[in-house]
Amino acid sequence: MLRYHLGWIDQQGQAQDSSLPLAFQPTMALAVCDALSGGVDPALPAAAGVELVRNFTLIHSEVQSARVESQDRPSVWWVWGPAQAINAGDGLHALGRTTIMRLAQRGVPAQRVLRSVQAMDRACLSLCEGQYMELDFQDRQLVTADAYYDMAGLRSGSLTGCAAELGALAVGFEEAGDQVYTGFNEMGRLLGMAWQITRDVADMWGQRGDGMTSSNALNKKKSLPLIHAMETSPVAAKRELANIYIKRVLEPSDLSRIVEILDQAGSREFAESKAQEFADRAMDASRTAADAAGMTPDSREVLEGLAQWALEGPA
Questions:
Q1: Which residue did the predictor score with more confidence, 179 or 298?
Q2: Residue 13 is assigned to a structural domain of this protein
Q3: Element at 73 (helix H, strand E)
């Protein structure tokens, strides 16, 4: 099941000659390490661990949202059932932790290896809390923007923040260590929030801009654009949105109407501006950490590329 989910084999166990794109979260660990040291080799175990943990969250999220497709194939739970999918996700979580311990094989001292594993455990706990909040939002009529930011910081920011910290821990700093590690964690957390908002926008409008996405039709996520419209729209529009979201499954006409109301409220522009704001704040945090680490201006361009990636919609 794990090999299938990772795209290495098909449902019959036959090897597949396919490659999945490098994800944002593990790239964060590699980029920070590269910016600090001029190479990615020390952080490879950390990045691999982050990727395995990221896939643990994907499998569980697919079960929670009843999503039948995972990237370019049926979801693990759709093929083997929810119970076995939970087992597969738990297995990936364990593999992620043990993989991070391989930092010791790259010459990372035991103290920093243990701190790296601790950082991942804390991130997973925060991530699970964020997933809980995201699911809880679906049953609420009113969710505030501040509550959404708290959720996004936990749901998406915790893993990206951890990944950035792991990239710095793989390099190591004797005197300014804590300032460097916490600074890059904050940079990653804020970029993770920008990353989630950007993908919430893409998920709400869809490829054709008409709201025809499975998330809208089935899961009814309370994303930032919707929350903004519920907070700022006229009373009649708020009531109409509430009545639509009471339905068990939304019809195409409902989805089109949601997008119309959000467009009238300027909710897409608001969400995109907030993503930019979080990305800007992330770069401020990175500069503080970079100064403490003694990074050169040229090295910081790698981090600016991460901010641009966070603001780009999915391909």
A1: 179
A2: no
A3: strand 73-74
What local confidence, expressed as pLDDT, does residue 315 receive? 63
CA angle 265, 269, 275 (to 5 degrees): 130
Burial code (b: 16+ CB inside 10 Å, e: under 16) for 14-28 equals eeeeeeeeeebbbbb
Q: Residue 73: exposed, middle, or buried by beta-carbon count in 10 A (0-12, 13-18, 19+)?
A: middle
How many Å apart are CA 224 and CA 196, to the nearest integer?
10
Which residues constitute the domain of residue 199?
2-6+19-310
Give every CB contact of residue 153 below 8 A, 6+ residues apart in sequence: 130, 189, 192, 193
216, 254 in Cβ contact below 8 A?
no
Residue-wise pLDDT for 35-51, tens only, equals 999 999 999 999 999 99
Number of domains in the chain: 1
pLDDT of residue 210: 64
**Entry pTM:** 0.93
Map residue 298 onto helix, strand or coil.
coil
Per the DSSP assignment, residues forming a β-bridge with 308 are none
Whether the predicted pLDDT of 297 surpasses 90: no
CATH of the domain at 144: 1.10.600.10
